[in-house]
Amino acid sequence: MAMTGVLRPGHAQLRVLNLEDGVRHYRDIMGLTEMTRDAQGRVYLKCREEVDHHSIILREADSAGLDFIGFKVLDEATLERLERDLQAYGVETSRLPAGEMLETGTRVRFKVPSGHQFELYAQKTQVGNGCGTLNPTPWNPAATHGMAPLRFDHALLYGPNLAEVHKLFVEVLGFNLVERVLNPEGTANLIVFLSCSIKSHDIAFAEYPEPGKLHHCSFLMESWEDVLRAGDIMSMHKVPVDIGPTRHGVTRGRTIYAWDPSGNRFETFKEDRQPYPDQEPLTWSFEALGEGGGLDYIQRKLHETFLTVLT
Ligand code: M3P
Ligand code: FE
């Protein structure tokens, strides 16, 4: 086993303005499975290939956006080590007890300089993907409905202090830079795509004055055909679409950006690269983000919503 440390984004808690509208979107239209609700009224949903208990948690609130993202780490010893490493680096951490989030062990919570809350955890009840573990089926018909994303894949977050956040993820959490977009002056990064695996990104950050903003949560689709089919379903249900279907030049992902009923942007996405950590990072100029097809490789334009519409 070569993957140690931080394994992957395991959950995101989203704020929605109306809980049942949110549930209709994520459960009935996107096709996640509702797993449970807790005493606070939060709804836990699972993507079909996630083997742990849940991928997305919805919390009703007066403003939309992201409460936090949780990364799963290898084991309890890794959790304790990373907690110590964060503290030694000067990051304040706190512990949420096992069970505060249902079916989930102790979480180590911390805020990064962009204003976003993250947490690390080592344990979440493994419920499986319904395919079995002995002579498994390739997919689970009972869990394959709606857009049928495989898993919660990554998020793009906007906030200040990009260089500090980038450094923390690389030096403490063991991520590597896969791609970046430079600012208009070419003097610093505007967006960084960071991976703790061989995905094109497990998390991405963009420089932005206001802290703690969500650009999108992304859901991995099985195929490009499934991205287009998700687009059909968006249209059938009048889900407002932002960009696509198209390809991002940056990361090469094939994509649609659209909005949930609270205005949180989500992405249906087919991964298209496998950047091992020995590969040199790819750099895009700010002009190339638009005209060079970084954002939209097919239309080659910088859609204005990309830089401005956030929750
Ligand atoms: C994604 C993705 C840009 C591309 C964004 C890419 C900033 O959202 O998931 O690959 O141009
Ligand atoms: Fe994305």
Give an account of the 3D structure.
- The chain is of the alpha/beta class and 311 residues long.
- It has 2 domains: 6-143, 2,3-Dihydroxybiphenyl 1,2-Dioxygenase, domain 1; 151-308, Roll (2,3-Dihydroxybiphenyl 1,2-Dioxygenase, domain 1), CATH 3.10.180.10.
- It has 6 helices and 17 strands.
- The model has no long low-confidence stretch (mean pLDDT 97).
- It binds (2E,4E)-2-hydroxy-6-oxohepta-2,4-dienoic acid (M3P) and fe (iii) ion.
Task: List all distinct small molecules, including ions and cofactors, that are bound in this structure.
Answer: (2E,4E)-2-hydroxy-6-oxohepta-2,4-dienoic acid, fe (iii) ion
Strands across the major sheet, in which order? 14-15-16-13-9-12-11-10-17
Average pLDDT across residues? 97
Q: What is the chains' assembly state? A: single chain
Summarize the amount of helix as a percent range: 10-25%
Number of helices: 6
For this entry, give a set of tags:
34% strand, globular, 311 residues, 8-stranded mixed β-sheet, 17 strands, 6 helices, 9-stranded mixed β-sheet, binds (2E,4E)-2-hydroxy-6-oxohepta-2,4-dienoic acid, alpha/beta, binds fe (iii) ion, 2,3-Dihydroxybiphenyl 1,2-Dioxygenase, domain 1
Strand and helix layout:
Blueprint: E1 6-16, H1 19-29, E2 33-37, E3 43-46, E4 56-60, E5 65-73, H2 76-89, E6 93-96, E7 107-111, E8 117-121, E9 151-159, H3 162-171, E10 176-182, E11 189-195, E12 203-207, E13 213-220, H4 224-236, E14 241-247, E15 254-259, E16 265-270, E17 282-284, H5 286-290, H6 304-308
Parallel strand pairs: 1-4, 5-8, 9-12, 10-17, 13-16
Antiparallel strand pairs: 1-5, 2-3, 3-4, 6-7, 7-8, 9-13, 10-11, 11-12, 14-15, 15-16
(2E,4E)-2-hydroxy-6-oxohepta-2,4-dienoic acid (M3P) is lined by residues 156, 181, 191, 218, 248, 250-251, 253, 267, 269, 289, 294-295.
